[in-house]
Amino acid sequence: MHRTHTCGELTAAHIGQEVTLSGWVANRRDHGGIIFIDLRDRYGITQMVFDPQDNESAWKVADTFRSEYVVKLTGKVRHRPDGQTNPALVTGEIEIITLNAEILAESKTPPFEISDHTTANEEIRFKHRYLDIRRTKVLENIKFRAIMNHFTRNWFTTQGFTEVQTPIFTVSSPEGARDFLIPSRLHNGKFYALPQAPQQYKQLLMVGGIDKYFQIAPCFRDEDPRADRHSCEFYQIDCEMSFVEQEDIFQVAESFVKDLIAGVSPEKHIRENKIYRFTHKEAKNLYGSDKPDVRFDLHFEDFTEDFRNSGFSVFQGAVATGGVVKAMKLENVAMSRSEIDAITTVAQANGAKGLAYIIYEAEGPRSPILKFFSEAEMKALEEKLQPKAGDMIFFGAGEYALVTKVLGAVRVALRDKYNLADKSELAFAWVTDFPMFERKDDGTLDFEHNPFSMPHGGATAFDNPEPTEIHGMQYDLACNGYEVLSGSIRNHDLKALVKAFEMVGKGEEEVKDKFGAMYNAFQFGVPPHGGFAFGFDRLLMILKDEDNIREVYAFPKSGKAEDVMMNAPSVIDDADLKVLGIEVRDEV
Amino acid sequence: MHRTHTCGELTAAHIGQEVTLSGWVANRRDHGGIIFIDLRDRYGITQMVFDPQDNESAWKVADTFRSEYVVKLTGKVRHRPDGQTNPALVTGEIEIITLNAEILAESKTPPFEISDHTTANEEIRFKHRYLDIRRTKVLENIKFRAIMNHFTRNWFTTQGFTEVQTPIFTVSSPEGARDFLIPSRLHNGKFYALPQAPQQYKQLLMVGGIDKYFQIAPCFRDEDPRADRHSCEFYQIDCEMSFVEQEDIFQVAESFVKDLIAGVSPEKHIRENKIYRFTHKEAKNLYGSDKPDVRFDLHFEDFTEDFRNSGFSVFQGAVATGGVVKAMKLENVAMSRSEIDAITTVAQANGAKGLAYIIYEAEGPRSPILKFFSEAEMKALEEKLQPKAGDMIFFGAGEYALVTKVLGAVRVALRDKYNLADKSELAFAWVTDFPMFERKDDGTLDFEHNPFSMPHGGATAFDNPEPTEIHGMQYDLACNGYEVLSGSIRNHDLKALVKAFEMVGKGEEEVKDKFGAMYNAFQFGVPPHGGFAFGFDRLLMILKDEDNIREVYAFPKSGKAEDVMMNAPSVIDDADLKVLGIEVRDEV
């Protein structure tokens, strides 16, 4: 037997018992010829004492211990001497006077310190992830992920949802991101694709009458990695329901996030304990984002009409060419010249020529552009924004999409610079009524979002002569500036679905060809249905205050989509590729 | 709102209430101008009545209903007329007199009857799986899978195991079956591989100190499909523990299966409520299988010594050339000539020249070979097998591996022919002590099983001068003739692991090269550890009495590894392959 107890459970109640513990040598101290070892396992730390007076042979073995050795120790539990107890540890009242010591495995010196204070870079940590996992912070993320998985599955099961594992080997789909492909050995020249999401399968389950489906689904998209997007694989809390309307779905998602946070992250709170709602248009108008961070205000006011005839040619010109003028007020800051320059750089990086501003000082407003403003324009600013001494106003003028993008980016940069958001707070906001179509530069239409969504107004909405004004029953849920959920009420009317594809220049044949299973299925009694998918990892990242999504995986891919521990991807022998009917291309 | 209740919940307690139900038209009957519809959803069936006297407009809509239309019906709950109640249904006491009817979606005539009595073949069913799922039997399998998933995760979580989702994109590994590969877009010329099992990752988790890990893990092997092996993807209940011995692991696995069956399949029982144990050698000797079906006896007795000097040259010759003679007794059958021929065909298909037998009749034994047997030989048979009138004895003679294989196959064929096994019974048997090595025809050694297993006797066992006598601490669990679990205590001693690879002609460089992460990790304090993996789908198949594993997936692949509903795998445009740095090979 390797142990009678773990390293995290012995207390004063065990004093006098003989116990055996196994674990890692985390720390060693020598005091007056006595050796003290902190023995660590995932449950905790226990102080082991080796006194040559008591047991010389155990002491001799312990004297050979080095950091991260795996050892098995038998001894008697005793009270720590007065003044040496550690109330921060469960085991802080006791220590073990060791009678027998055995080395189960030695260890070389680790390439970095097994400590939350390690300064090792990501590559070294990921290459030796099996050591990185021994650090409390990483272990806690792994444990939290398990808890969140468990909570999520229990929640949906309790609510009557049926978990279905949909196929991981499926067919390539023309919509969305790029697919990962798998060459087929049995069918040379053909390829499976990994699912970007179980979208078609879950809709087919609704046709099959499953009624309420969920799955924590692995999803695969061949996209370049980002801080909030893990490469290769990620997980979705995927959900679909029949015979529901949008409001029913909102209720399920809202109940889930509220229960989840109360259940697994009680140290966090939901701002005002409510889920805000904005239409896509409102979110863009107010925050310049379809995933606004509403932990702080800093919203935009519109001044287009106020500056239509302005003496400031930049604003006047913007309005004259169909653009807008917007502004937002940052309260109570004193920005230096260089800070203003830094923020201006953010605006420029997002396509603006510059960033107009006004500083309100005790002596009154100050700005290089003030001289162009009329009294009425100043009054409009004061009425809508009510600036006080110490505040600043930032402007955006030009094409609507550009202005909202620029001010949206400036808003986020100001948040980070001035800590405008409370880190313990979670601000959830529905963003609804996404436009179904966008007009491309060449004047033709394309789907803005999910082609399978039902428009507001139902199937007849597609008769609208201005298609960009058709809004889908599609919605995202934003949290602290991240998109954490996306979903829609699906278009279950096959004729209307074909119409939607025709509007972007594709026809019934295309639907039949590319979405054959859905096309067939929708002819055999399809119920009204809708659903959503939460980004599991992204939600986890937010709940654990991680800035990089890679930290929430047990074995993450690097920023270059590599597994640096396993050396994936790797070169494969041509003989093995031959069996699969493929070869590596020569050309560059 | 699409419904106030589901089709499975209204009872006499609801009489008088106005309700709205939505569902599928499962059945329509007309009696004296009144229309009766069975409205179906996944929760049940409710009888809807349309009486033109009561509400003509609803009746008129209902008159257009056809099978599998999706409809929304509002009406009043009332008691069924006397004599028309159906105690088999939850809703059997009531019916709804319908006041409003709406068609939500029409349906073409389904290509097969939505009924458990359908005679549709697998291809038609799988092509229209969204319809197949509406059949109770398929729905029940999907629901059962969800229940089993849920039970399993709860069980392991309650027992202190941490769920970890290991990567699905990993590196190709040289051991085991063929890997599925994924060409990398970011690293042209390189490939990810899908994991055949999370074997290396779970061992690395143990090095990382996770202590007790589990996962219902998707696994991927490019093998040809079989009745008990789904193509492309399948699931394992994967588990690993540190600081354990083989017996600790057996306790966990045994508790799990006992609790699982009591929890999800209470109609089944475990034979003698115990888990049998056989060494690999015993299982081969007694049943000719490393996954014996022990729901019935029909074991082999050895007669090698008894026939060493036999007058029957076939037996004598087999023993003289180092082979064996084995026999088993089938009780109380009367096999016809053609039945004996059929069983002989089984023996021949497994490599035997024929199948020797004796029939014990009331008048005494009868067989073409009796004339060659001595009195002592007949006595040996009677002593060991104690045949009675009505029994039969079957013989195998020749090389050990062939005899056990042939008699093992005959034993299974006899089980199927004579229903020797109780279908409600589950007979679990550990098969332990697998040989570590096998000798190939050219005299060199190869791994028989998992190279990462610890041998019995520990690392020094590799010093045994006869390597085929080294037995691993590796074990399978058989149930009703299927292998449902495989596992081992791992070899955590890096030097011994290298030694094992050297014995099969591979060296330290090979271990370093092919299993680099393990090679590195095992130098930094690796705990003793071991584990197992249950075949989730195979266990489910057994619990649901399915003969084909395809039936336990929501969306199965066909026997040709195709998704006939989605048309996977499919041809991909060369432009998309170019991005991935590959092309389809021209040569055949």
Average pLDDT for all residues of chain A: 95
Biggest interchain interface, per-side counts: A-B, 122 and 122 residues
Rg calc of chain A: 30 Å
Structural class call of chain A reads alpha+beta
Number of domains of chain A: 3
CATH class bucket of the largest domain in chain A: Alpha Beta
Strand order of the largest sheet of chain A: 6-9-10-22-21-20-17-11
The CATH topology of the largest domain in chain A is BirA Bifunctional Protein, domain 2
Summarize the amount of helix of chain A as a percent range: 25-40%
Strand content of chain A: 25-35%
Quick one: biggest sheet of chain A? 8 strands, mixed
Give an account of the 3D structure.
Two copies of one chain form a homodimer. With 588 residues, chain A is of the alpha+beta class. Chain A has three domains: 12-105, Nucleic acid-binding proteins (OB fold (Dihydrolipoamide Acetyltransferase, E2P)); 139-277 and 473-492 and 527-575, Bira Bifunctional Protein, Domain 2 (BirA Bifunctional Protein, domain 2, 2-Layer Sandwich), CATH 3.30.930; 296-420, 2-Layer Sandwich (Gyrase A, domain 2). Helices cover 28% and strands 26% of the residues of chain A. In chain A, helix 4 (136-158) packs across helix 6 and helix 9 packs across helix 11. Chain A starts with 17 loop residues before the first strand and ends with a strand. The mean pLDDT of chain A is 95. Strand 23 of chain A pairs antiparallel with strand 25 of chain B, so a sheet runs across the interface.
